[in-house]
Amino acid sequence: MSNRRVLTGTHFWQGDIACAEGGIAAGCNVFAGYPITPSSEIMEHMARRLPEVGGVFIQMEDEIASAVTIIGASWAGAKAMTATSGPGISLMMESIGLAAMMETPVVLVNVQRGGPSTGLPTLWAQQDVMQARWGSHGDYEVIAVAPNSPQEMFDLTIEAFNLAEMYRVPVIVLSDAIVGHMTEKVVVPSAEDIQLVTRKYTDKSPTEYLPYLADDSLVPEMVKAGDGYFIHTTGLTHDEMGYPAMSGDAQKKLVTRLVNKIRNNADKIIKIEEHDTEDADVIVIAYGITARVVIPAIRRAKSHGVKVGLLRPITIWPFPEKRIVELNRHVGGWVMVELNCKQLYFEVERLLKDDSKLAFVGHPGGGLPNEEEIYNAIMEVAK
Amino acid sequence: MSIKREVIHPLDPYLRTERFPHIWCPGCGIGVVIGAFLRGWLETNIPREKLVVVSGIGCTSRAPGYLLFDTFHATHGRGIPFATGLKIANPDLTVVVIAGDGDLFSIGGNHFIHAARRNVDLTVICVNNFNYGMTGGQMAPTTPTDSKTTTSPYGNIEQPFNLVHLAVSAGAVYVARWTTYHVRQLQRAIKEALLKKGFSFVEVLSQCPINFGRRNQWPNSVSMLKYFKEHSQIRKDEPPEAAEITIGNKIIVGKFVDTERETFMDKYHRLVQCVTK
Lengths: 383, 277
Known about the structure:
The complex is a heterodimer.
Chain A: E1 9-14, H1 15-25, E2 30-33, H2 40-52, E3 56-59, H3 63-75, E4 80-84, H4 86-91, H5 93-102, E5 106-114, E6 120-124, H6 129-134, E7 143-145, H7 150-167, E8 170-176, H8 177-181, E9 183-188, E10 232-234, H9 248-263, H10 266-269, E11 272-275, E12 282-285, H11 290-293, H12 295-303, E13 308-313, E14 315-317, H13 321-327, E15 333-338, H14 344-349, E16 357-362, H15 371-382
Parallel strand pairs in A: 2-3, 2-4, 4-5, 5-8, 7-8, 12-13, 12-15, 15-16
Antiparallel strand pairs in A: 1-9, 5-6, 7-14, 11-13
Chain B: H1 30-42, E1 51-55, E2 70-73, H2 79-89, E3 94-100, H3 101-107, H4 109-117, E4 122-128, E5 131-132, E6 138-139, H5 163-170, E7 174-179, H6 183-195, E8 200-205, H7 221-231, E9 232-236, E10 251-258, H8 264-276
Parallel strand pairs in B: 1-2, 1-3, 3-4, 4-8, 7-8, 9-10
Antiparallel strand pairs in B: 5-6, 7-10
Helix pairs in contact in B: 1-6, 3-4, 4-5
């Protein structure tokens, strides 16, 4: 195709292809994956494209190996990613905890399909939203972003790499089978217009450097294998040297920092798209493909005189709590639309005042709520 | 707690001595393997900063925590894919996986055979102590038939893996087996494995007096070393299928395979050249 990393121009791309191109444009030079519908096109495209740009593509024996390989690659200095769907992301959960614990920048794409178990391999859902946040054991924080178009599959995969590098965390691109498989216009800017972030490597000498000592940013400076620092990195609870430290005090210090480095920076990380929210009486919250599904119902309610706004969290984790609380000062009715049996609904519910109304419109995947259901929910909470 | 050390050991510069005392039980064989590993490496000219040691979880997997190199202690069974990531991202690194039999061949078995098949240029050193030591002496896929462990209290009814046969079948280009009794031979094998291009595998049979030996016929470390000494037969190029381990019978040790095959990354680099020309 091309030996250029950034295919500047206007394309007609499938979401999965746009995601792979976003990764390549972000500087991804290691992709490890295992085939699974509906994300396989990402790895197929990487298999063709990464050799062209000098990156390494490897098909692993399973999703566990894929996730662990990108963590290893990241420690050798690579920008590394994998892509999968429901059953695969479940297998990757332990490794996401390892990446969080070792503070390793990696990107994992989950093109969601219906579950549980094998579920609906070819059909969409948004049922892995809570798993993205809570799926590995223990306390930790990740970042997750939810694209709603092939354009955003490109843009947000770049963003995912930037966030992973900036905060040294695993970042999950939470797509779904519709966005992954739909084909639309994707505009790729020139390489110089794409802002890329690279992790902060230390300039300290090996004798001064402590691998897990962080400043006020809470993000420690990194080194890579082969730099002569002789670091030790472990999934065990560790001290600032990276050495195992089996105590409640060490655990408190480390895990609190891992959590706070994301929580304290939530305002900088979070991206939201809003329409007509400032003077709204009712706000519909929807993300990913669902944010497009709700549009006809919102238009219809507006035509009947209801002031309806749309809030689309582009960043799912950390969740845009502050903005919802702020809007709730003047908004009386909320409608949560998502393709599951209430997941982010509960996040919203706990943020609202007792007198706010909250309706839920959902579908457990493979189908979509129809305009009528969403419209009725808007009218119900508008009363 | 740290021990004030009056005497400096010649290998101290390569160890994280401030982390001593180590976690291993009295009489454990892992320290012998660590010594052989360091001495074997010192006979190569591999730069220290380019040697990376990776492990999974278990007693042996704690070894990287005491080695003063770039060291990574991954999750259970996942040392090999972690090492694969390091190697493909930076082929200039010499990447070694040191882990136990349960880690490498039970939970990590799939990774082992596939890394050998694709001939990733790694050296895998397996300390085979016939059981899961860290968790209290449970049965492993290497526990000999009829041996007792905490999860085979009446004797193991299963057949163990013959690790050298498995490694050869999966495509490893260098395969050797020694025991903690054969320290010099082990050191040479590790040196050869480190210098070998491609997937090299060294199995080290080791005593685990606390969790395996005392539940069987070896109440202490010396009795198991004597058993290794008396039952080992050194062979060269013996068919790997003959190397199965059964209690009371001969243990074949030596080098089983030492061959050449293009590595994953060498082939990948040729592919990149074709694609980009």
